[in-house]
Amino acid sequence: MEPTRSDRIFGRFKRLSDLKAGRHKGRFYRNSLMLILLIASIPGLITGIVMYQQVVGRMETEFNQMHQNQIENRARNVDDQLAYLEMNLSHWAFEPRFGNALRTLDFVYYFNETQEIVTTLYVLQGSHPLIKSAQLYLQEPKPILFNRDYTELNDEAKVQAYDRYLSMGNHVYWTDWVSSINRDTEPSTNDSPLHTDAGNALVLVHKIPGESMNPFGALIITLDNEKVASLLKTLTPYDEGLTFLMDQEGNTLVTGNPGTAGETSAFEQQLKEEVALNAGSRSFLFRYEDQTYSVSYGSLSRIDSDWTYVSAAPLTSVTSPVKLVSKIIVIASAGSLILGLLLSWFASRRIYSPVARMLHLLTPGRNETTPMDAKLDEFELLEQQWNELTSRSVTAHRQLQEQLPHLRDSFVLQLVQGHLYAYNEQDLQQRMRNLGFEVEGQQFLLVQMYFTGYEQLQGRFGSQDTGLITFAAVNITQEVAKNYFGQISVMNFHDLSSAMLVIAPQNEPVKSQALLWGQELVEVIGRTLKMKVTLMVSRPAASIQELPGRFVEMEQAVAYRSVDEGSQILDLEDEECFRRNEAASYPLGLERELLQAIRLGKQDEAERVLEQFMSEITRTGSTEFQVQQMMLQLLGSIQHMMLQTGVTPYKLFGGCNMYERLSGIREPVQMRQWMMNEVFIPYIQEVEVRSQEPLKLVVERTMLYIDTHYRSDISLENCADAEQMTPYALSKAFKQVSGINFIDYLTRVRMEAAKELLRETTMKINDVAAAVGYQHSYFNRIFKKQERVTPSQYRDQWFGQ
Hints:
This protein is α+β, with helices and mostly antiparallel strands. It contains 25 helices and 16 strands. Helix 14 (about 605-615) packs antiparallel against helix 18 (about 670-690).
């Protein structure tokens, strides 16, 4: 028999009474404690020293490499911002409204055209956050300046200042010369466009007309120096350090620290010298005034010159915490060792003192003068502790009886879900007996219930009340089952599904009873909750270890329920229940129509086609498995289309596993609502936010032209001429809006048409190639490159299937 806690307590007191030589025990405790503290403190000392000597140097090297990688990524962003400004200004410069017609236009008489130019400048100024102002200067027919309004320039100094923009630089160029600041400076056509004053703002100038070699005006964009400095500041991961742009002659254009120009001029000059000395590498470590900096630099290729960015970040911001922590560890370890030695000596004496008093109280004859009732106090204490333990035991037993039903259900849930696979049959039977089950000479049957038709309850319950509905259905299940079975355990999955374990004697027809109970349950659920029930009845199991396998069979078999029927009772032993038509076809045509509607942002059209798609795949005889597989395939096609258009599904859906969420939906109506609300609408909204309307219209017209005339000779140049754009501008806009290159989209359209002809006609390969706009030899090469098989092999494989 296992000893009780009171027996163990008395045993400990008996051993204490045998400690007659307590002093040497105290010394043993003291020495042991000192040894333990010594062993615990030494690793801290070693760790602190190693961190201080080795880790700091390693961190400097690793941080330098990491800093280089970060700066390169952020420098690309800066380059993209400036490139976007150049492209955007070029786009506006080639607009017809800035053409040769402005030479002879009477701006006072044609007020609408004048107002349209001012409005265009407002749009240009707001098209990018770095732009501070946008101006249009016309030299002919007379000096005119468009800024926030129409102004005729009569001041000769101002005219000469703005004429300077037409005399210096190329057709498109950068400068930091601002006419309003340097209005007294005499114009000079020989001066460099960049005057290398870091305090001046950057100015981007495009002479107009954009296609003319004899410009008579200029579009002038002045950047916000503070915002440019803030953009450069992103090249430094920390608040400290220095970031600046310089030209080919080494003169500073813009600095990321405009407020500290005087303080950092010497540091900046030394950085420039070090960059010149380390021209072969992209990064290096630089020591300045007892601080080590990680310096990264690279080039930014602009239209008329090459700029160099330089970023210096102090390593002290990273290494100083490590140095401080290592010093703290060393000091703390040494202090704890000294303190431990003192405390061990003091504690050992204090620890032995209560032991001696306990021996004095419990050992008879140790002190003759001790009163007899002093020995009884310890027994009274023991009796008090025993009564307290007994009271706690009774309370715990009562609480256990109250929680036993929940423990039974929790154990059965873990059992059927396979979490107790490590236990053998005997252990499982013993645990079930401990929980109050009778398992000797019994058979086991699993029944799983799926409650459908929840969308019909939306008027009475909200979308978040599925747990409440499932709880009510489980209670009804328990009440109905009590009239049929002696031992049951109902499991609530809180997702409109539940399961029940039935334990019955081996000689009882538990399967027929379960079928009768299922019919009554279907009627009760339909009458009370107005829902349908799909009920799965497993094969009886003779052992407990078979239950997880039965549960898996039911979860797999439920996918074969018919989606267009009402309540169903499916017996896993009845093959007729699962003999469905497996030859359901996937509506590829509707999928293509749906993808096109989504890509073009036509929400109403997408919803209409989705309803047709759902009607097609949920026709009579379709199973839940077939519907889910087709919806998963549709989701995959939609996400592939998103990637092609430049939208990342992972970011759009917040990192959610959309396949897992779709797989958890069982009813077609909820699948359609989920697909529309969670997939279509977020994508359409994202595309509308990201796209620029003028470019979107151009690309849509180009894509429509390709879809209609892919059989003829189509080129990027022809399409660009039709849209009055340069081939480069159209190619960049096409990639930005559609997410795919112009030639790739043309090839894809032609390949899809060719595959359709190969599948649905008996045309010769030569005729198919001509029908989609290719020559025969080139068609074979491009088809094999795209599909990895020749056209003949593709046709043979299709008809072979």
